[in-house]
Write a structure and sequence with these properties.
This protein has a three-stranded mixed beta sheet with strand order 1-2-3, covered by helices on one side. It is α+β, with helices and mostly antiparallel strands. Among the domains are: 9-47, no CATH class; 54-88, no CATH class; 96-123 and 138-182, GMP Synthetase, Chain A, domain 3. Helix 3 packs parallel to helix 4 and helix 6 packs antiparallel against helix 7. It contains seven helices and three strands; from the N terminus they run ααααααββαβ. Helix content is 32%, strand content 9%. The radius of gyration is 44 Å and the shape is flat. It has helices spanning 26-47, 49-52, 60-69, 80-88, 90-95, 100-111, 159-169, and strands at 116-119, 142-149, 175-182.
């Protein structure tokens, strides 16, 4: 039971479970209504019991309890969504434990970043005679987990806890190393320089309008000033 909730309605009022004789009895109905307030959280919890075992729906303190069920260690400093995701995917993480995918998924849930995983591989030769060439890999395998995070997010990752998480997800006989890099902030794009504006050219100077010349004859002779025929 989570506790009482103000004005929480009960889905099964006790007053209506009494014989019909008491349905209109004010004292009986008020007495059972007081009990409904006490029992309403119990009934609400029972009706939603499936949500209490779902990491995505359960109250956060129940998520911590569910984490103990599946053997997952939570960090109280994690965001709530990340804690729920880790508990919800615990079965998958256990199924892929000891593989590259299992290590990658566990680190991605914790850091929010898909890591780069480098495994050297390990080979051994038990036959006689020994091989002529050098065997690939190393006699003892090594696992390197590189995590590249955004600038300013380094404080959100606990290296000790991350190392312990990788140690739990990798094969027990393989040595490992965890490297955390903070990405360099991207340089702002260069500003594009606009071409300087050319000053506006002043309008061309115009002289006085030319006087209109009288139209001459087709043979090039101009009419006399008097306008007559010249006699």
């Amino acid at each position: 039971m989570r506790g009482t909730v103000e004005e929480l309605a009960t889905p099964h009022p006790l007053g209506y479970l009494l014989p019909a004789l008491y349905h209109d009895n004010d004292i009986a109905q008020r007495f059972t209504a007081a009990l409904d307030i006490v029992l309403a959280p119990v009934l609400a919890t029972l009706d939603s019991s499936h949500a209490y075992v779902d990491p995505l729906l359960a109250p956060l303190d129940f998520v911590e309890w569910l984490a103990e069920w599946v053997g997952v260690e939570l960090d109280a400093s994690w965001p709530e969504a990340r804690q729920r995701a880790l508990v919800a995917r615990a079965a998958d993480l256990f199924a892929w434990r000891g593989t590259v995918r299992g290590v990658s998924d566990a680190v991605a849930i914790y850091t929010g970043v898909v890591p780069e995983i480098v495994e050297s591989g390990a080979t051994a030769w038990t036959g006689v005679p020994p091989p002529a060439g050098e065997l690939p890999g190393f006699a003892a395998g090594e696992l390197v987990v590189r995590v590249r995070i955004a600038p300013g997010d380094a404080d959100a990752i606990d290296p000790v806890r991350l190392d312990r998480l990788v140690a739990a997800a990798k094969p027990a006989h393989i040595a490992h190393r965890v490297e955390v890099f903070e990405l360099t902030p991207a340089a702002p794009p260069p500003r594009r320089r606009s071409a300087p504006r050319r000053p506006a050219e002043p309008p061309a100077a115009t002289g006085p309008p030319e006087a209109e010349q009288p139209q001459g004859d087709l043979d090039g002779e101009w009419p006399a000033d008097g306008g007559g025929d010249g006699d």
